[in-house]
């Protein structure tokens, strides 16, 4: 088994109809590697492998990285969702810090644009990566705010990463990559945006993020699809209150009525989720330092920590419990995060 073999087979499986992220993870769990699983289950991939080889060549020419679900570089939070993408196409660099999604309608008010920019800039200045969808309106303002805050931002596309949509945001997409962020997609190179691809990408927007902030949304906005995924994934949902007479705020006001957390100030995010707040330097006891450094890079599951640290299960369990008790880390489901 080689990393290239695992990548090639993962890419081939992503092309296979009826084979999704859950099936992939079950194969990985049962056999320990994708190559072994494909061999033991006798999965026929002749045509898909040919397609995968061509795709790898295209990606190499374009400077696009393809990250398989079995890779340590695959975002831990995204791996936990119901149907994680088997592969992620990445132009730029995947974030290593915590993420919050800032989303809303394409058609929005000046109030919505200003608020999205301000919230994203605050998060960016606080060391949080801002995730959005590169659409006109709220999404664009969120990406611009994150860049103004000198931080990272990720645009999740409903197309291939080489097909920038809308075309008017090509320069914005270029800036996102140049300033250390990324364009991300689960769709093969050359895929055009469609009514089917946009809703699918929304689960990745929320899946990458600890929380979703809906700034402004109409009653039937696509942002509501992101909220549905966020709730399914156990993410915290914030909504910015709007004018009750404004059609741009009907969706967000309805979310508030249904239980979303009102966002009256960007600081409200940290009040609700204090573990996201930028950490001040603290003295970490020597026995915790290895695990602490690993978790500083990104949130991780127990299995991933065991693999990267090489510790015995019993020792690792005891150290993690101690770190939780001392407030150094917290556990969110099966994922550990630095406080």
From TrEMBL:
InterPro entries tied to this protein: DprA, DprA_WH, DrpA_SLOG, WH-like_DNA-bd_sf
Source organism, top-level taxon: Bacteria
Ranges in coiled-coil conformation: 35-62
One Pfam family cited in the UniProt record for this chain: WHD_DprA
UniProt keyword terms in alphabetical order: Coiled coil
UniProt keyword Coiled coil present: yes
Domain (DprA winged helix) ranges: 290-331
Protein name: DNA processing protein
Record domain Smf/DprA SLOG: where: 68-273
Family assignment from sequence similarity: Belongs to the DprA/Smf family.
GO biological process: DNA-mediated transformation
Record-linked PANTHER family: PROTEIN SMF
């Amino acid at each position: 088994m080689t990393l290239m073999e695992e990548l090639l087979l993962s890419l081939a499986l992503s092309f296979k109809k009826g084979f999704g992220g859950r099936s992939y993870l079950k194969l990985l769990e049962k056999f320990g590697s994708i190559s072994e699983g494909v061999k033991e289950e006798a999965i026929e991939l002749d045509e898909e492998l040919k397609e995968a080889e061509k795709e790898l060549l295209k990606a190499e020419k374009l400077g696009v990285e393809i990250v398989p679900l079995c890779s340590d570089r695959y975002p831990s939070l995204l791996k936990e969702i119901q149907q994680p993408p088997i592969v992620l196409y990445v132009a730029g660099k995947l974030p290593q810090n915590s993420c919050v999604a800032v989303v809303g309608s394409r058609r929005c008010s000046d109030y919505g644009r200003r608020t999205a920019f301000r919230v994203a800039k605050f998060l960016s200045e606080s060391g949080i990566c801002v995730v959005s969808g590169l659409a006109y309106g709220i999404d664009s303002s969120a990406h611009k705010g994150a860049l103004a805050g000198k931080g990272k931002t990720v645009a999740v596309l409903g197309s291939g990463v080489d097909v920038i949509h809308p075309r008017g945001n090509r320069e914005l997409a270029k800036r996102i990559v140049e300033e250390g962020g990324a364009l991300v997609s689960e769709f093969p190179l050359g895929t055009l945006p469609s009514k089917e691809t946009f809703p699918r990408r929304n689960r990745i927007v929320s899946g990458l993020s600890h929380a979703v902030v809906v700034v402004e949304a109409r009653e039937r906005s696509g942002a509501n699809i992101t909220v549905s995924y966020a709730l399914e994934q156990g993410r915290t949902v914030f909504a910015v209150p709007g004018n009750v007479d404004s059609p741009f705020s009907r969706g967000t006001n309805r979310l508030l009525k249904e239980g979303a957390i009102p966002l009256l100030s960007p600081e409200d995010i940290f009040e609700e989720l204090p573990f996201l707040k930028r950490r001040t330097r603290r003295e970490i006891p020597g026995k915790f330092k290895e695990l602490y450094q690993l978790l500083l890079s990104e949130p991780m599951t127990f299995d991933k920590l065991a693999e990267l640290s090489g510790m015995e299960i019993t020792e690792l369990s005891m150290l993690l419990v101690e770190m939780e008790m001392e407030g150094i880390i917290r556990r969110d489901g099966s994922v550990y995060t630095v406080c």
